[in-house]
Every structure is written in structure tokens, then in C-alpha cells.
Design a protein that fits this description.
By secondary structure, this protein is mostly beta strands. The chain contains one helix and 24 strands. The chain has two domains: about 170 residues, Sandwich (Immunoglobulin-like); about 140 residues, PCu(A)C copper chaperone (Immunoglobulin-like, Sandwich). A hairpin with a 2-residue loop joins strand 14 and strand 15. The two termini are about 30 Å apart.
């Protein structure tokens, strides 16, 4: 095994002792089809016993949930623990024998009075229909308490009879979708129209659908500067969110850092800048209504020279947006 650490803030946690907890973690999406790529959205509804704030969430991925990609959370460190699978799986025509086996969100602060979701995208592969995939979860609260959700129902046992049941996703029989692939190529066809402002061309404004209750979303766009002088994107606004910011994610020595770009983004003369998942992007905070597939989100971008430019972000599927920028 090895650990890849993605740093969104620098806090590390001490070891913890275990005491009983008092309610259940669960998934927003409790069912999924065989051989499908999904976003498993873990709900953490409260802190540990005694009202202590959650500072770390660990999720052990079950066999058959492969090629996982966790969603970073602002204010939390992210560790991805790699390991070998018990067998080889097919994914996009290739054999996959290893990958992430545990995800840890660390160094955060989720008060007992609030809940949040911790999201992992992955493919369900080689699992029989009507099987419950169990994700063992440990919830840590500083150095004083833990809540461990690792009990698995057996032989028809009712999960509600367990004191600390592991959250599960029930695998349903795969439906006949007319030969569609397990991911949404169709989302790439829902790109916004090109908008011109001075020497700039803006195209492909897009976002992926958000999960129920998710307060933070992202957005992407391609900006081409046809002029002979540089311009700068200085701000982003939308009535759909309480606050919008320009962010960057960059990997340095296997450590990924996300930060707000207070100085905006330079758009060099004769160049094209792409805002994409895992790189430059917009962050929308306190979203009033979670973005749903098919939504059109109005956004105003302000440039030093081109001024204010209105674009419409088109929302694709939750599992398809990453594909929009990764498929050529």
C-alpha cells in the first residue's frame, strides 16, 4: 500500500480513542446498477457522542468498487490509500488490478450542529445483483472520540438491528440501456454557445450536477484570447450562489493543493486558457439550489480589458462532467 496526500489545509490529527456513537452514517444514493460508474455520497449527520465536531472521516472501499476518485473538500486534507484488488477488473477495456482502497478526509471541522457529504466516484464491477456493498466508515472527533460504522448484516439480517452498521449501497440488476457505456459521453454534447467579448472568445461553460444538500459546486470554461495583448479574468459572480471564487488545483511532488486566486487568471495574447476539473476552476459557495442536470446557470465574468461578460453554464450529469474535459 501507499498513500497519496492531497493537502487543502495543513492540519494533522493525533491518535484517537474509541467511545460509542449514537446514529448512522448513510449514502444519499443507496442503490446503483451493476457495472455502473457512480458518485457514492456519504452523509455524516452529526459529530461524535457528546456533541464533538468531526475532524476526520475514513472510508474503506469494498472489493468491487474500483478506480475510485474522491472529491476534495476545501479545508480538509485528503489521503488516498492504494492497494491491490483481490482480482482483476475490466474498466474501459483495460485490466485493473489495483487502486484506491481507503479514503481519508482529515484536518477539517464539521460541528455537531451541521451535516455534510463526503463524495467518492467509482465503478461497481463484478458484483452480483441484490448484493449490498458495505463501506466501513470511521468518524473521528479530535483526539477524544471516534464513531465506527463497520458492522455488516449477514444471512438476511436487518441492518437496522445493528448498533453500528456500515453504510451500504444495494447493487441492482443492470438495465438494458441500448448499448450505452457506463459513463455519460452525452454530456459532452451539452456545451454552451461561444460568447465573444472584445478579443476574447468564451466557450464550453459547464458544470456537473450536484448532489442533494451539497452546498458547494464547481464550474469550467475555455477562454481564447485572439488579441495582441494580455487580459485578466478578475472575478466571477452568479445569482445562483452566495459567493463565487476563482480557484486552482496544482500537484507538486504528488501533493495536490487547492487555493483561491485573489489576483485572477492571466489570459495571454494569442493563447487559450482552459478551466477544467483538477486545474483552474470556479467554486460556487452557498448554492441556493443544487445544480441539476440540464440546468442553465447564469454567470458574469469580469475581465480587466474586456469588461463584464455574461455566459451560461450548462450542467451535465454528476458522473459525466469529468468526462467532458478528459475525452478528446
Amino acid at each position: 500500500m501507499n498513500i497519496r496526500k492531497i493537502t487543502l489545509c495543513a492540519t494533522l490529527l493525533a491518535s484517537v480513542s474509541s467511545i460509542p456513537a449514537f446514529a448512522h452514517t448513510s449514502f444519499v444514493n443507496p442503490t446503483a446498477e451493476q457495472e455502473s460508474t457512480i458518485v457514492a455520497a456519504l452523509q455524516v449527520p452529526h459529530g461524535c457522542e457528546g456533541g464533538l465536531a468531526t475532524t476526520e472521516v475514513r472510508m474503506v472501499l469494498p472489493e468491487g468498487f474500483i478506480s475510485a476518485k474522491p472529491q476534495p473538500k476545501a479545508g480538509w486534507d485528503l489521503e488516498i490509500i492504494q492497494g491491490d484488488y483481490q482480482k482483476a477488473y475490466k474498466n474501459h477495456g483495460a485490466d485493473v488490478k489495483s487502486g484506491p482502497v481507503e479514503i481519508r478526509w482529515k484536518g477539517g471541522d464539521l460541528p455537531d450542529a451541521f451535516y455534510d457529504t463526503f463524495n467518492v466516484q467509482g465503478k461497481i464491477s463484478g458484483i452480483a445483483a441484490n448484493t449490498n456493498l458495505s463501506f466501513k466508515v470511521t468518524q473521528l472527533c479530535g483526539d477524544k472520540a471516534t464513531a465506527i460504522w463497520d458492522q455488516i448484516a449477514e444471512n438476511g439480517q436487518d441492518p437496522h438491528s445493528l448498533d453500528n452498521p456500515a453504510p451500504t449501497i444495494k447493487v441492482l440488476a443492470k438495465q438494458n440501456n441500448g448499448g450505452e457505456h457506463d459513463h455519460d459521453h452525452g454530456a459532452a454534447n451539452h456545451m454552451a454557445d461561444t460568447v465573444k467579448a472584445g478579443d476574447l472568445e468564451l466557450s464550453g461553460a459547464a458544470a456537473k450536477a450536484m448532489l442533494p444538500g451539497q452546498p458547494v459546486g464547481g464550474g469550467f470554461v475555455t477562454i481564447k484570447n485572439n488579441g495582441s495583448s494580455d487580459d485578466r479574468l478578475v472575478s466571477v459572480e452568479t445569482p445562483a450562489a452566495g459567493r463565487a471564487e476563482i480557484h486552482e488545483m496544482a500537484v507538486v511532488k504528488d501533493v495536490m493543493k487547492m487555493r483561491k486566486l485573489d489576483d485572477g487568471i492571466v489570459i495571454p495574447a494569442g493563447k487559450t486558457i482552459e478551466l477544467t476539473p483538477g486545474g483552474l476552476h470556479f467554486m460556487f459557495f452557498n448554492v441556493k439550489k443544487p445544480f441539476a442536470e440540464g440546468d442553465k446557470v447564469p454567470v458574469t465574468l469580469t475581465f480587466e480589458k474586456a469588461g463584464k461578460v455574461d455566459v451560461v453554464i450548462e450542467v451535465g450529469s454528476a458522473k459525466g462532467a469529468d468526462q467532458m474535459h478528459n475525452h478528446n
